[in-house]
Design goal:
This protein is an alpha+beta fold and 388 residues long. The protein has 11 helices and 17 strands. It starts with a strand and ends with a helix. GO terms for molecular function: chorismate synthase activity; FMN binding.
Length: 388
């Protein structure tokens, strides 16, 4: 299974090609549009979320509500394209220097300068348009189909915000995925605790007043996973490593942990590893889940718990100092449209990237050209695991 995305932040559309889903998976545009709506929400979002109301068009691979087994093609149009046709159009122009809104002042914390040096661009808009977090809308669309695939196999996924700018949600996470969803969907910052929500919103408001931005920590939880997804035999087959890569690939993410994560550095082994127990009804389980559902690069059958750290958005309304690449003179970095906190939205993106990697792992282990074949294979594996 694999996917590709194409398109720029202010281009006409985002285009997606997804390959590898079996035939017979129920998918409709409403499912994807609901997840796209979730991505656009959250306290601290900027003006673009008012301009864009993302809607997907299914243009291949799905017929009458079901996948056909062929590559799936999706399109998400950019509603603001009409205001950018001259600036972002593909047609040749006589004088490139006459193009409006050229970017020659790289913004600290962005891909602008590195990309310009790498590709030789004197207008860094060629870099920032693609490196924009706008591309994550495409990933959410892809991840939605992955979530539908996993749900058909009894695997459920939810996400939440754990921290924003130092304000933490210390409440105990419910075991039920439905309970997590119900609570977080009612929260403007996607956290579980009301007092923590107010503290997070206060931090966001203070940052906005100061022309600054804040980051945070998000968490994704997946339940119902079969034992043994991934493998211990090679570095690139360890599923936790693949998920870590997927999470780190999300714009502005700078750290990943599973289970107790970095806290393990200060704990003795007796408070880190998960003791094993067995019963005739459930087979082997763990008494705790400190390792976040993984041992040896493979799923244990316990919930997968992964967290990602998102840095503060680097586009600030009190811009940091930079250097103009044409004049070499110091300037305040240019300002593009921005949020001052996108952590709640990042939680949704993280949820979908984890879903994608889990779906890939399921397909690698169980194969199947038809959904009914995959369902039967997963059910048989569960029975073998309990009887082992």
């Amino acid at each position: 299974m694999r996917f590709l995305t194409a398109g720029e932040s202010h281009g006409p559309q985002l285009t997606l090609i997804i390959e590898g889903f079996p035939a017979g998976l129920a998918v409709n545009a409403a499912d994807i549009n609901e997840e796209l709506r979730r991505r656009q929400g959250g306290y601290g979002r900027g003006r673009r979320m008012v301009i864009e109301k993302d809607q997907v068009k299914i243009v291949g691979g799905i017929r009458h509500g079901y996948t056909t087994g062929a590559p799936i093609a999706l399109v998400i149009e950019n509603k603001d394209w009409k205001n950018w046709t001259e600036i972002m159009g593909p047609e040749p122009i006589d004088d490139p220097e006459s193009v409006k809104k050229q970017v020659t002042r790289p913004r600290p914390g962005h891909a602008d300068l590195n990309g310009a040096i790498k590709y030789g661009h004197t207008d860094m808009r060629n870099v920032l348009e693609r490196s924009s977090a706008r591309e994550t809308a495409a990933r959410v669309a892809v991840g939605t189909i992955a979530k539908l695939y996993l749900k058909a196999l009894g695997i459920e996924i939810a996400g939440r915000v754990v921290e924003i700018g130092g304000a933490r949600d210390e409440s105990e996470r419910p075991e039920s995925i439905d309970a997590i969803r119900t609570i977080t969907e009612a929260s403007e910052v996607r956290c579980l605790d009301k007092e923590a929500e107010e503290a997070m919103k206060k931090v966001i408001d203070e940052a906005k007043e100061n022309g600054d931005s804040v980051g945070g920590v998000v968490e994704t939880i997946a339940t119902g996973l079969p034992v043994g997804l991934g493998s211990h035999v090679h570095y690139d087959t360890k599923l936790d490593a693949k998920i870590a890569m997927a999470v780190m690939s999300i714009n502005a993410f700078k750290g990943v942990e599973f289970g107790e994560g970095f806290a393990m550095a200060s704990l003795p082994g007796s408070q880190v590893h998960d003791e094993i127990q067995w019963s005739k009804e459930t087979g082997y389980t763990r008494k705790t889940n400190r390792l976040g559902g993984f041992e040896g690069g493979m799923t244990t059958g316990m919930p997968v718990v992964v967290r990602g750290v998102m840095k503060p958005i680097p586009t600030l309304y009190k811009p940091l100092q930079s250097v103009d690449i044409k004049t070499k003179e110091p300037f305040a970095a240019s300002i593009e449209r921005t949020d001052n906190c996108a952590v709640p939205a990042a939680s949704v993106v993280c949820e979908h990237m984890v879903a994608w990697e889990l779906a890939v792992a399921v397909k690698e282990k169980f194969g199947g050209d038809r959904m009914e074949d995959v369902i039967q294979a997963v059910e048989a594996h569960h029975k073998r695991s309990v009887a082992f």
